[in-house]
Write a structure and sequence with these properties.
Blueprint: H1 3-9, H2 51-64, E1 68-71, H3 74-85, E2 91-95, H4 100-110, E3 116-120, E4 136-142, H5 154-163, E5 167-171, E6 189-193, E7 207-211, H6 214-227, H7 233-243, H8 246-265, E8 272-274, H9 284-290, E9 297-301, H10 305-314, E10 319-320, E11 330-333, E12 346-350, H11 356-371
Parallel strand pairs: 2-3, 2-4, 4-5, 5-6, 10-11
Antiparallel strand pairs: 1-7, 6-7, 8-9, 9-12, 11-12
Helix pairs in contact: 2-7, 3-4, 3-6, 10-11
The structure holds pyridoxal-5'-phosphate (PLP).
Length: 374
């Protein structure tokens, strides 16, 4: 069965009885009826198990190709992998241009606990050289990276790491498992923030870890139970519901983003466009091999901070907001946060599901406004 077919059937019970609802309802439970020996109850307590999590986990597992544990956020999912893999004296290799908060988490807490944090850019597979350093236990990859959409060769990098018995986690948030399958490319963990395109409606915070095998999954599940980094049943159910339309949304976002990237590349106000679907992307050939869709996130550079701010103020169909993957188009000047090493005029845009003609019309007037003298 293909992903699109699976997506619309997720949650449908195999053995429907007449009168059953087609889609499950959320299950709210703080505790369960569990008499006698706990081993006799499938579920005991609300922090360790929930049917709405299980349904979502099964659905994501089908997509990612490995046992899956859902978390209260993407960061909680990432923390579970760091927490399960890293001990004092170990080293972790991170992308220097990946999601800022993953770097910040490692550098704020893990360094103080005696973990060495090594960083190199995603581009040119530069992280591979750091695998030679002593004590490396975990290679953390992010391709396409957020926010510059640089890429690395996932199959090649995981093969090198495996040869050295180093675990590989891939942050698959930007691509989603509909576009890219890290476990099939050799990763031990596929981690994602489902806050983005999977849940896809800008109203949920949730994450997951999918694992290469059951042994790793048991460790990650145990981490969740002990730390309590659980998602709410309502959020889990809404994410399961959203998955049915995720392939449709991601296809539309990707095709809109492709057209917008091509449009931006023709505009004199735009100094550079970053999108894996453009032949001018330094690893476009790799993107074609590694990804099924190029996704709804693109970045571009205007001359300076003033031009970027004028652009954002003038655009009517582009809401100024952080995050990405929602149904309506948003954008922001990334340097306003100070975490990413990007120029002042750098804009990250999350392309939504609008009619692309409307978006291009609006972008045309907003780009003209960005260049106007005041
Ligand atoms: C948003 C994001 C995260 C963190 O996810 P939350 O759901 O916000 O905790 C991790 N990695 C990437 C690439 C992201 O974009």
């Amino acid at each position: 069965m293909r992903d699109e077919t699976r997506a619309v059937r997720y949650g449908h019970p195999e053995n429907l009885q007449p009168g059953d609802p087609l889609h499950p309802s959320p299950i709210f439970a703080g505790t369960y009826y569990a008499p006698g020996d706990p081993a006799n109850s499938p579920r005991n307590y609300g922090r360790s198990d929930n049917l709405s999590w299980r349904q979502l986990e099964e659905a994501i597992a089908g997509l990612e190709g490995g046992p899956t544990i859902v978390f209260g956020s993407g960061m909680a999912a990432g923390m579970a992998v760091f927490g399960c893999c890293l001990r004092p004296g170990d080293a972790v290799v991170l992308p220097s241009d990946g999601y800022f908060f993953c770097r910040s988490l490692a550098e704020t807490y893990f360094v103080e606990m005696g973990v060495t944090v090594l960083k190199a850019p995603t581009a040119d597979d530069a992280q591979a050289a750091l695998l030679e350093e002593p004590g490396v236990k975990l290679l953390w990859l992010e391709s396409p990276s957020n926010p510059e959409l640089t890429m690395c060769d996932l199959a090649g990098m995981t093969k090198t790491a495996r040869g050295k018995r180093i675990l590989v986690a891939h942050d698959n948030t930007t691509a989603t498992a509909f576009a890219q399958k890290p476990l099939a490319l050799g990763a031990d963990f596929s981690v994602a923030s489902d806050t983005k395109a999977l849940a896809g409606h800008s109203d949920i915070v949730l994450g997951h870890v999918s694992c290469r095998n059951q042994m790793l999954a048991d460790q990650v599940r145990n981490w969740r139970t002990l730390t309590g980094a659980i998602p709410g049943p309502m959020e889990s159910w809404l994410t399961l519901r959203s998955m049915a339309t995720a392939p449709l949304r991601i296809e539309r976002q990707s095709s809109n983003a492709q057209k917008i990237a091509e449009f931006l590349a023709t505009r004199p106000e735009v100094e550079r466009v970053y999108y894996p679907g453009l032949p001018s992307h330094p690893r476009h050939d790799l993107a074609v091999r590694q990804m099924r869709h190029f996704g709804g996130v693109l970045s571009f550079m205007l001359r300076d901070q003033a031009a970027a701010e004028k652009f954002l103020a003038a655009a009517k169909l582009v809401t100024e907001a952080t995050s990405f993957g929602g149904v309506s188009t948003t954008a922001e000047r990334r340097a306003r946060w100070g975490g990413d090493d990007v120029p002042a005029g750098f804009i990250r845009m999350s392309v939504g599901c609008e009619a692309v003609e409307d978006l291009i019309e609006d972008l045309t007037q907003a780009l003209s406004a960005s260049d106007a003298e005041v």
